Every structure is written in C-alpha cells, then in structure tokens.
Protein 1
Amino acid sequence: MSTVKSVAVGVELTGRGTTVALVDRHGKVRHRLHAMTLRGRPAIATIEPSLRAIDTMLSHALAEGFKVGGLGVCVPGTIDFDRRRPLLLPTLPSLNDFPLCDFLEARYHLPVQLRIDVDAALLGEHRFGAGKGVNRLLFLTLNAVVGVSLVVDGQLERTAQQYVGHISHLLVSTNGPRCSCGKRGCINTLVSADAMQKMVQRAL
Ligand SMILES: [Zn+2]
C-alpha cells in the first residue's frame, strides 16, 4: 500500500459542531468538512449531520484513490474506555453511554478509536507537531477550564485519560482572583478563556 494514499478520517465532535478531516500518514489534512451537532435530540439524531459528513468524506476518499484505514473520533468529556463509549459529555449529553465505537464500526466497517479531545490534540502534536520526537510532552488547553494531557516515555499517560487532566484548581498565585471553589489564585481564574473574558470585561 502506498503510504501517501493511506489515510484516516478524524472526527471531532463538539457541542458547537463537528469537524471531519481526511488525514494522511504525515499528519497532513487532505480534505476537511464541517457539520452541525443537533443538541437536545436523541443520540443518533444528534450526530446525523456528522454521519452524513463522514459519508461524504469516505466517498471523496474513494473518488481520490485514498485508502481509509480507520476512524479516529474525539469528544469533549470523559470516556468509558472498556466499553468504548462517551461517559460524560456536558455539551452533548445525549451521547453519554451511547455505544459510539460499535455504532460507527457497524455502519462503516472500519476500525474506530475514541479519545478525549485534549488527548487527541496532544497525540497530534506529539506525532506531527510541536512535540515531535520528544519523550515527555505536556499539553495545556485554555478553554472554559484549563485542561492538561501528558506523554511520558512516548506514551499517553493513562491518568490523563480519566480526566485527572483537569487542573482548574492548581494554585499559581496566592493573591489571585477568588475562584468558584472558594480559594484564591487557581490557574482557572487567571488563564482560562472565561478568566480572560472577565478581565477584558473589567477593563472596558
Ligand atoms: Zn479553584
């Protein structure tokens, strides 16, 4: 099999929508599509537009002569790794406990891997980006809360997969702003997207 023509389909599910990407073995995105996620509907209805985007992507791959090796799906929340399904997705609750991997494998007859979004981003940086070739890599995300994921000895730390990766209340400044947890100076009150939004609002 030609390595150039060998690809995978990456699917990022979020409460705001879904990105579907055709990625080659060098980490290069060859084609990208976007779809809505229909929040508040049952599980399959929630991801129906995403499924159509995956259908379109697989047709595109076939037409372009690409060989799709599998699907990689990431979700914003926790995962039940043994049962290969989302456990708790605050922004897409209808997918909680939905057998996502089994469902997609039955539909597409391709192997499916499910990851937490932060871990998927870390693995991407480790394999193809800023952390390429390094043995230890720490990845921070600054969204509504601060998340962390870790590669040690070239492997994703298992603890990060169980959302120990939430470091919102790590103390970084003893006289920082008051946090929702009652303490002062948690990292979440200083560098999260919410914290920065509050700082801008106060400054205006
Ligand atoms: Zn706190």
Note: The chain has a mean pLDDT of 90.
Protein 2
Amino acid sequence: MTRNHYMEKLVPVYRSATEEELKLCNGNWKYGAFFTTVLTESKRFLPYAMRKFKANGGLVYPKHIDTISDLKQDYDVIINCSGLGAKHIFSDYKVVPIRGQVFKVKAPWIKMAFYGDLDTYIIPGFESVTLGGCRQYESYSMEVSKYDSQAIHERCCKMLPSLKDAEIVTEAVGLRPHRDVVRVEKEFITTTSGKAIRVVHNYGHGGYGVTTAPGTAKHAVKLVREILSTNSKL
Ligand SMILES: Cc1cc2nc3c(=O)[nH]c(=O)nc-3n(C[C@H](O)[C@H](O)[C@H](O)COP(=O)(O)OP(=O)(O)OC[C@H]3O[C@@H](n4cnc5c(N)ncnc54)[C@H](O)[C@@H]3O)c2cc1C
C-alpha cells in the first residue's frame, strides 16, 4: 500500500450525527468526540505476546530486583522495560505515576468510543465497556476511591444516560508510568561492584504505552542491535 493510500484511509470525516447516534448521545453534550477505532485488549494481547516470545525461544525468570546489581548473571545487554520500577532500580526521579480508575460494565449496546470533558471516556471492549476516568499525578494509591467511583459513574451516565442500566462487573485502579519524556536510549553503567553493564531503556510511556509500544519497541531493538554489532562502549 502506498503512503497516499494510508492517508486516504486516515483522514477523519467530519459530519453531523445521525438520528440513531443522537438517540444514543442524548446526554446534553456541549462538546466531545465519538469514534470507532482499533482496540488492543491488553488482557488478551499480553498472553498472546508472551506465547509468541516463548515460541521464539524466549525464557522467562520472574524475579523482583531492587537494584541492577541484583542481576548476578552476565548479559550482553539488558533491556529495561520496568515502567514505574525504573524510578528505584535506576534512580530516575523523572518517573511518576499518574493514577487512573475505571469501571468495567456490561453494556453491549455501546459500539463506539466516546471522549468528553474532565477525562471522561467510554470505551467498548470484547467483554465489557470501560468507563473512566481520572489522572491523578503522583498518586500511588491502588485502592478504589469511592469519591472517584461516584464522579466517574455520574459523568459517564450524564454523557450516555443508557449506562445507568448497565451492570457493573468490576472497578479497577492502575498507575500510568509517566516520564517527561519517554526514555528509549542506551546507557552504559558501572555498578558499585565495578561491573560494566550495557542497558537499553524503554520506559515512561504514561497513559499511551499500549498505543506507542510497537514504535518504541522497534527503536529499542535497533539500539540493542547497534550495541551487539559494534560491541560499543559509551
Ligand atoms: C487507567 C489506565 C488507562 C490507560 N489507558 C491507556 C490507553 O487508553 N492507551 C494506551 O496506550 N495506554 C493506556 N494506559 C497505559 C498503559 O497501560 C501503560 O503505558 C503501559 O502499561 C506501560 O507498559 P510498560 O510495559 O512500559 O510498563 P508496565 O506495564 O508498568 O510494566 C512494567 C513491568 O515491570 C515490572 N517491574 C517493575 N519494577 C520491577 C522490579 N523492581 N523488579 C522486577 N520487575 C519490575 C512490573 O511488574 C511490570 O511487569 C493506561 C493505563 C492506565 C493505568
């Protein structure tokens, strides 16, 4: 496919809402957006990616590490994808959490994604619809907050009143691993015990890690290849 072909496909089409869409969005909106798009459902994608990694010869050793010196074995290169963990492992204090909270509800009649004011979003998935959200900078709380729950539910139902009837499946909290800017680069480190370690960092994607990972991962692989091919030291 040529570049132009892609561009043709990607140009957004602005139009008035149809009668059917207006019926769905009868929540007295001032402004906002609704659209259909590609969705990566991490719950399904991550097991698939892990199967693929193992099928290609990848080995997995689950282990918590506090510092890079905890890795006793010698590796040609270490790829650091530790998200928020990089704050402590690599003493990178630019890494901060942006806390988010969501509902998962049963609402199979919702076929499009909706974005409104105050970080309000409604995203249909395979088994449920996600209602969000919030962005709380530097909050580490993993508890579901009843105040956030109330505000999120209220805002989503105001946007799409039919959600009042949706059965709540679960509520969840997550910490987005934010860094200004995302760090994808090489670093050559000498540990306190004098060991030289070659690292390729790939972390800090904040609220966009699922979307941007294919690109940053590709760049990280390029950096790994550079290290391995030149045997370079910074
Ligand atoms: C509410 C919410 C909504 C989101 N919405 C979107 C969205 O719409 N689109 C989008 O693209 N992204 C979204 N994201 C962001 C996305 O989830 C993250 O950007 C993505 O998970 C980052 O992936 P990662 O692999 O870099 O980090 P993580 O997923 O955080 O993975 C880091 C891994 O490192 C491990 N680790 C950390 N420290 C250590 C240690 N000391 N020792 C051993 N292991 C360690 C962790 O256990 C974990 O497995 C959302 C996130 C949240 C919370």
Note: Strands lie at 33-35, 78-80, 95-106, 113-116, 120-124, 129-132, 136-137, 167-190, 196-205.
